[in-house]
Amino acid sequence: MVNKLSQNPYDQQPTDGQFATSSELIADYNHTPETDVTTLEHAVSPELSDKEAIAHIALDGTEVTARRAQFMHDQTTTS
Amino acid sequence: MADILKQAMDLLVGSDPRKLIKRPLKKFTNRDLIKLESEIGRTLFGPIPKGHSREFFCLDAETWVWYEQWLDEKTGKSKNHTIRYEVHPNGILKVEHGGAHYHFIEGEELQNLALATRAYKERVFRKLYKIDPATGQPLTEVPAIINARDQK
Questions:
Q1: Distance between CA atoms of B121 and A59, rounded to whole angstroms?
Q2: Quick check: A60 and B58 CB within 8 A?
Q3: At A18, which helix (H) or strand (E)?
Q4: What is the reported pTM?
Q5: What angle do CA B104, A53, B39 make, to 5 degrees?
Q6: What ipTM does the predicted assembly reach?
Q7: A9 vs B33, B62, B112: nearest CB
Q8: Are the C-beta atoms of A20 and A13 separated by less than 8 Å?
Q9: Helix, strand or coil for residue A1?
Q10: Which residue ranges of chain B lie beneath pLDDT 50?
Q11: A6, B109 in Cβ contact below 8 A?
């Protein structure tokens, strides 16, 4: 069993039998109207140091759980 | 007299006043929201092989979970693999097999996890909570999951 995180998540989706490159998939994603290009380009920057990557992961976890908590709070106060 | 009162009440509030009581909608629990988030998280890594099921989600602020289950073709038995990525001040600890194996990830795997968590946050904010991840402002007045719940 191979953990897919050992590979780039943007390189996982086969296109016509081949794996698309990160840039191709990012380009597709950037063309989605609801996508904020600036944010995504920042997100997939390959220049992250290990220290920066750790900080990003920590921040993402904090923001997701905060958003989840906010949603639960909102549904309590608005019902 | 009672009949007249009942008829008056029927005219005013309908035959069954209890129908006017607005029942509170089912609230999403933390677990419900994690399951919905994982439906997005599992799509970040491309097609899921036939016979496999996959979950990828943020359990709490310090823990990300990868889970994959599949049927072993040789033995016919169900197998699974769970990985916890724990955020520590000095790195991301990858914990496998219930804690039997663990090490701090680095290099490409660390980069890819950072890409995955950022993509997760982007998509979950936009698709589930309908929030702009950059500004924190609502994309719509009502989050999509509320609409989906109300239509059930």
A1: 10
A2: yes
A3: strand A18-19
A4: 0.69
A5: 90
A6: 0.76
A7: B112
A8: yes
A9: coil
A10: 17
A11: yes
